[in-house]
Amino acid sequence: MKIFIATSLSILCLPLFVFAQEIAPEKTEDWSNKPPVVKPGEGGKAPSDALILFANDNDLAKWEGVKGEVAAWSVKSNVLQIIKDAGDIQTKQKFGSIQLHIEWMTPDRSEDKGTSRGNSGVFFMGLYELQIYESYNYETILYYNGVAGSIYKQHAPLVNACRPPGVWQSFDVVFDAPMFNDDKTLKSPAYMTVFHNGVLIQHHVALKGPMVYAGYPEYSWHERKLPLRLQEHDSRVSFRNIWVRELSSAN
To answer: Residue 75: CB partners within 8 Å, gap ≥ 6?
Structure first.
């Protein structure tokens, strides 16, 4: 009886194995969608299909204040720097899902006091904040979901990959915009993956909604594309080499 069962199982499995081997290789080859050619950036420069938001042009042509006024931050020697009390700035162009590269640097610790220490942020769609903060090698005075690399008040970074004040740092981010149904209810949340100085600190985390300082975030309908915003929070944080690549929504 045992021999019969083993033989029967072998016979049953054999046609499946033979069938798999009989599929011609070209049957599983996809020639329908040729990937476009993108030239990678050399020496820290953007790839060929990126939109340069700030680099070596020494101006703020692609930026404005949040009410449409002229952006009032400082631009000198290819560096964009916050002017205290000048307000946030945002891109004139609107974006949905994007790949973002941005380099930033916090000022000397002696310059900022309290919770203003190197405080700024990148707001995707003007709503979803990736925190910038001076969090190098010290016991933070902020909660862990408020330090550099946190999705503010939602997700603490996996690790602290900060460099010292006065040293350039980088964020490389994949942001998947949220999607809404026709009746304006949420279809899928936003997601974010973040590399800080080349180290993975946020791994495709689901966002709970737009940033809120007090209370709990929740989604409400908004446009499919909105400006990218940089926060002014009483600290002379500097920026350079900012570029984006627009992505098809991965949700």
So the answer is: 58, 59, 60, 81
- Single pTM value for the model: 0.88
Task: Render pLDDT for 161-214 as a digit per residue (tens, 0 to 9).
Answer: 999 999 999 999 999 999 999 999 999 999 999 999 999 999 999 999 999 999
- Beta-carbon count within 10 A of 168 CB: 15
Instruction: Name beta bridge partners: 199.
Output: 196
Q: Is residue 7 in a domain?
A: no
Give the integer Cα–Cα distance in Å for 19 and 21: 5
Q: Per the structure block, which two tokens stand in for 26? A: 């070209």
Phi/psi for 226 (5° steps) reads -145, 165
Residue 159 lies in a domain: yes
Please give the residue range of the domain that contains residue 122. 35-246
